[in-house]
Amino acid sequence: MNKLVLLFIAIILLSGCEQKKVIEIPYPTTAKFKGSQDRYFCEALIGTQVYAPSETIGKINKGVIGEVFKGTDKISIKIEGNKLYFLTGASFEVGDTAEENPMNIIHNDSHILLAIDKIESNLIVSVFTLNKDTGIGNWSKIKPYGLLTGNPDSQSYCLKCESR
Predict the structure, then answer these.
(1) Cα Rg of the chain (Å, integer)
(2) pTM score
(3) Is residue 1 part of a domain?
(4) Taking the alpha carbons of 34, 37, 40, 45 in that order, is the dihedral positive or negative?
(5) Residue 35's domain is classified under what CATH number?
(6) Residue 63 CB: number of other CB atoms within 10 A?
(7) pLDDT tens across 68-79, in order?
(8) Which of 101, 105, 109 has the alpha carbon at shortest distance from 81?
(9) 16, 71, 86, 148: most buried, per Cβ within 10 A?
(10) Helix, strand, coil shares of the chain as percentages rounded to 5?
(11) Nearest to 47 by CA among 90, 79, 14, 84
């Protein structure tokens, strides 16, 4: 096969592929937590969303969608006993309170915090984890159906957290 034919085949094969989107954010420098160990303030650094729009199911060259974006939300966290009260800025703006759906703390020591919640009525699972030594956390939310799709979707956010 000559080089022109190989190049043509490569172009055809690669034309259906999209490049992955990468967002790089400088690693945040956070001091060890010096304040309270029962109140935290977190900022979303980066977020992801993965879903399958209903209109793409079973169609050629369509399928699941993965998005990466710069985080913008802010999160307030309060710990009382074995409950973690979690409130996003977006939820606050629509009038929600953290008391509506507290997460259950699974692990909490001087280094790691891990909480999980399943909201029964909506079948949504949320997981929050925080490395207290670095101030880096993650909040992930998984649903068996999307708002408009009827298919499972997930969101995940890398967080920079500080004690308050």
Answers:
(1) 20
(2) 0.75
(3) no
(4) positive
(5) 2.40.128
(6) 11
(7) 888 888 999 999
(8) 105
(9) 86
(10) 15, 45, 40
(11) 90
Report residue 39 CA to chain centroid gap: 20
Continuous H helices in 46-97: 89-93
In a domain, 138, yes or no: yes
Contacts 24+ apart (CB under 8 A), 114-119: 115/84, 115/86
Asked, for residue 89, whether it belongs to a domain, the answer is yes
Give the range of the structural domain holding residue 138, as residue numbers without chain letter: 31-163
Which pair of structure tokens corresponds to residue 92? 């606050």
CB 139 within 8 A of CB 87: no
pLDDT digit string, tens, across residues 91-134: 777 777 666 778 999 999 989 999 998 776 678 888 999 998 88
**Is 62 inside any structural domain?**
yes
Q: Report the length, in residues, of the chain.
A: 164
C-alpha triplet 95, 97, 101: angle, nearest 5°: 130
Give the separation between CA 69 and CA 47, rounded to whole angstroms.
5
Summarize pLDDT for 47-68 with one digit per residue, the tens: 998 887 766 555 555 667 788 8
